[in-house]
Amino acid sequence: MAVSSPRPGAPAEPAGPSGPGLRRTLSVWQAVGLSVALMAPSMAANINPQGTAGTVGRAVPLAFLLAAVGVLLVAYGFVRLCQYFHHAGSVYAFVGATLGARAGLVSGLGLFGTYCFYGVVTSTAAGIFGTDFLAAVGVWPDPPSWAPFVLAGLALLGALALTIVPARRGTDVLLSVEGATVALILVISAIVLVRLLAGDAPAGQTFTWSVFSVPRGTDASALFLGVVFGFLSFAGFEAAATLGEEARNPRRDIPRAILGTAVFGGVYFTVVTAIEVMGFGADDAGVARFIASGSLLGDLGRDYIAGWVGDLITVGAAISAFGCCLACTVGASRLAYAFARDLRREGAPPTGLAATTRAGTPGTAAVLVVAVMAVIALVLALAGGGQPFEVFLWSGTIGTLILLVAYVLTTIGAIRLVFVERRMPAVPRWQVVVPVLALVVLGYTLYRNVVPFPSPSDGAPFWNPVVAAAWLATCVVAVLAAPAAAHRAGAALTAAELGARREAGAR
Fold this sequence. Notes:
Helix content is 71%, strand content 0%. It has 18 helices and no strands. The protein has one domain (28-498): Amino acid/polyamine transporter I. With 507 residues, it is mainly alpha-helical. The chain has helices spanning 28-39, 41-47, 49-56, 60-84, 91-99, 101-136, 147-164, 167-198, 223-234, 250-280, 284-292, 296-304, 307-343, 363-383, 388-420, 433-450, 460-480, 483-506.
């Protein structure tokens, strides 16, 4: 990969293959838009905490706080890597440049799988919330059980259309949609908190710090089972890394977007989930109502404010889920584009997945991504007996387990680049403790979710890690079976890194 001639006063940037490529048009706020939209804080706060409550009871905010700490530790590695290297392949490039092309391809294919599974998560959530809203307002009374899948399909088609148009427009849509829904959630949360503090809450609920403690009789290690849903909620904070070749100032803007999104998510999820649990009640009866709720913030809005607020939250969650689906499609298409571009033979034209549209977006790759999402959704729907919520839970857990492995490889790569090879000599050596602690949190979370291993009779708890492991094993086999492709990928990553070094020296 060569280095293009920059415009006067602009930093050099890696060029793509001959012909049109990705364009540097995105600001730091548009990078933030992709990360925030993929994290989908408004959708996540409305449904993900229920998965955590099933294992840790009232201690949902404690599990989310632990997940926030883990995410901030992981973010350190991404920030350091993005300060050194920027590439549309995200972890594929980071791991490949530090641990070798084969490891990079495996981690990149793993992240691609995560984005595809999360595309199923979010499109299904959009279908579930959208169906509930249409039924509530009388537009589609008594919808059939398959109705959410119809809306999920429409969400996938909409995400495909917005991915193919210039990324500037897509990220603008993501930021505006998510900003509006998050603002609504914060207003409702503030009202609920005020009523809790004033002793004026429904059913006599009150403010309590007990939500940050594990209930008696619950093993503290169970927190790491619930932390999976915490990581699911944060997942996507690193999505801005896939825009490394489209940001105007990637060495500054991408790290800021990643770290800022992680910090915001940590504060937001910890505070909002604490208010949610207290709003329903921190006792056993309240936790039972919490788990059974069809819309956490929607129900709180109805109980604490007015009935119409619940409908606003439901439609807001549906829009947020669609925005997240769009972000998944954008991120996965950039990964597929990066793979195809780096794996094609020298001198070959940029066709197929390696081609971009006149607008500078990987259109063919986007079509492939949506097709993969549709196949995953169909398989899980058949396996789950046609229950949309089961598809949501299964695809979310599988995607998160794969993502944690990608995070582990990225963190190891950051340690090697910064502290072993000292390619960033200005970084103090003592900071190695940060990525090491990240490995401890990630490793124990993975361990706790497979040991003791569930039995086949347990259903989803057994199959989720099996499917995640099968996806990763398939990635490993595919990479080992194509040594020539791995060699081309290594050469491309080496050329890209040399370009990054020249750019750093020019600055």
